[in-house]
Amino acid sequence: MSIIFFAPDSDNAAIFRRVLGDHVESVQVVEALLSAAVPIAMHLEEEGAEVFVARGGTAALLREKGIKSPVVEIHVTSEDMVDALAQARHGARSDNPRIALVAFSEMVQDLLDFLPFLKLRITSYTLASEEDADPLVNKAVNDGAQVIIGGAIAVRIAQERGLPAVLLRSGESSIRLALEEAQRIIYARRLEAHRSNELKAMLEYAYEGIIAVNSEGRVTVFNPVAESVTGVRQDEALGRPARNVFPSIRFEEILRSGSQEIGELLDFGHSKVMVNRIPIRAGGEIVGAVATFQDITRIQSMEERIRREIYSQGHVAKFSFGDICGSSRSLMEAIEIARQYARVDSTVLIHGETGVGKELFAQSIHRAGNRRDGPFVAVNCAALPETLLESELFGYVEGAFTGARRKGKPGLFELAHHGTIFLDEVSEIPLSLQGRLLRVLQEREVVRLGHDRVIPVDVRVLCATNRDLHLLVDEGSFRRDLYWRLNVLALTIPPLRERPGDIVPLMNHFLAAFSVPVSKEFELEREAISFLGRYPWPGNVRELRNLCERLNVVHAGKSVDAAVLSRLMAYSEPACAIRTGKTGLKDIESAIAQAGGKVSKAAEILGIHRATLWRKRKRSSLRSKG
């Protein structure tokens, strides 16, 4: 029930229902006339009625008595009047009787100018209220009226006087027009309510403070955040001149100049806020202004969070324990220990020769733990110069050093918040940075370069090394306190030479991967398998993977014997020195020569990073000179 039609009598009610037949679910027809309709309308309005439709006098009375919902009037058309006049002539048994039109002005106002053209003897008597009907009908009779045309009350009184009377009915077209208008009003009101609710929701749940004023500078909008930031209650602000409540915002300048002002810093009590002020225009005129503002600390916090989200994209662990290929007892024991470590948040120190898959284990521990949904941030501590490693790990603010990004940058510890950071080749962290790393591990907080603000971080730390940290501690190149902070849970990955049973399964795995998209099949001969088992594998799984890739590219046949493998593995002989972790100057120079002078390629041959090669080369040169 959305629309209520008031019918003056049962005959009109029947007409209304017949015309409105297709809209019975949203329209209700009620028989009530004039003052009798008012209490009914009030009750139905409380029940949810949205629009009332009535004829002249009843419509006017509903508006007069304070009905809040819209009232649509059913007008009388010239066609309706012509029908009534025809009935009047028939009832008076005269072609040109004296006719009295007794009705409310709202009903016949549009017809009064039309009547003189009919060349009939018609006199109009306008009702101002329900009480006027009786005296005006009497006056019409005294004036010689032979028949009365009017609304229900005038017809009833005339019939009581024994005078012929014709009810001025509303035709079907009038009823349909009134219905269409009522439907348009409902649509417009619902649309306005929807927009109003949207605006209210935006104002109430916006993270910004919002204040708006009209053209006179009086506050018209004041949302909860504005209350919180300014310390002024809504009832103290609405309707008052903004210059008296918020003089620092200076709305009058915006209203006068029509120019917007963006990003101004203002003080509100103990808060510093950023304010945007914009004029509101309608029809080319300034009709008001709006100011939006946010607390500076909130803006900074959001900026940091957004930056972390942007930089953390791609910081995910791709591998799990199911991706570790092999079934040897030593490997299974390492996996079982790693699974146990994954259940806790303690720091893990992973030790293993180069190429054994330390990061594969680190990613698996992360994915099996409670932080699996957080970021996995890996950094190779040997791959970056000291100054760059410091800024990458701890972040920096704008202007911290020459070449720093304009808005600064969060460090990797920040990006790993609620996740895991993996420090590969942790033994290569310069002594000067080890103290800062120790503080992060102890206090779980970082301070960006060039700043004094402490940023708490919730991070699990996994480390890896292929060197003997205890020996480095004795040599003085690694801090003893940092060593014990890192060596909480120790995990050793067995080298490939100690688990020869894993070599062939690993080889089959790699060859299957490299054969895509071109399908190639290989068969290892018995002596080839024996050769693989005897080989020391200084580069471990990484070296085996490289061998499989070379085999897939170079070897055209299906059968693979020991000679083929020996020839292909000759490329990796310089890496043998890495097995003991003692890469000498001779090994380095040999690798550089084999790589044609390319340091990056030489580092790849040796299985170390470019920065590590430079450091080893420098240290070896100094020792040889000494």
SSE blueprint and pairings:
Elements: E1 3-7, H1 10-19, E2 27-31, H2 37-46, E3 51-55, H3 56-64, E4 71-74, H4 78-92, E5 99-104, H5 105-108, E6 122-127, H6 133-142, E7 147-150, H7 152-160, E8 165-167, H8 172-205, E9 209-214, E10 219-222, H9 224-230, H10 234-237, H11 242-245, H12 251-257, E11 261-268, E12 271-282, E13 285-295, H13 296-312, H14 329-342, E14 348-351, H15 358-368, E15 376-380, H16 386-394, E16 395-396, E17 409-410, H17 412-415, E18 419-424, H18 431-443, E19 445-447, E20 454-456, E21 459-465, H19 469-475, H20 480-486, E22 489-492, H21 503-514, E23 523-524, H22 526-534, H23 540-554, E24 559-560, H24 562-569, H25 585-594, H26 599-606, H27 610-625
Parallel strand pairs: 1-2, 1-3, 3-4, 5-6, 5-7, 7-8, 14-21, 14-22, 15-18, 18-21, 23-24
Antiparallel strand pairs: 9-10, 9-13, 11-12, 12-13, 16-17, 19-20
CATH-defined topology of the largest domain:
Rossmann fold
Strand content: 15-25%
| CATH architectural grouping of the largest domain | 3-Layer(aba) Sandwich
Overall 3D form: elongated
Tell me about the biggest sheet? 5 strands, antiparallel
Mean pLDDT: 83
Number of domains: 6
Span between N and C termini? 102 Å
| Rounded radius of gyration (Å) | 46 Å
Helix content: 40-55%
Number of E strands = 24
Count of helix runs:
27
- In CATH, the homologous superfamily of the largest domain goes by the name P-loop containing nucleotide triphosphate hydrolases
